[in-house]
Amino acid sequence: MEGNALDNLLELVNNALPDNQLYIGRIDGDTFTLLRILDQGDTNLKAYENKPIALSETYCHQVFITKAPVMIKNTAANRKTKSLPFTKQLAFRSYAGVPIYYQDGSLFGSLCAINLKPGQFDHHTMEVLEKFSRLFAHLMELEKQAKQDMLTKTYNRRYLHEYFEKASIKGTLLSIDLDGFKEVNDCYGHAAGNEILIEVTRRLEQNLREQDRLFRLGGDEFIIILPGSPNESFSRTCAQAIIASLSEWSDFSPAIDISVSIGIVHYQNKQSLKKLLQIADEGLYQAKQQGKGKFTMMPSG
Question: Domains of the chain (ranges plus CATH)?
Answer without folding.
Answer: 3-147 (3.30.450.40), 155-298 (3.30.70.270)
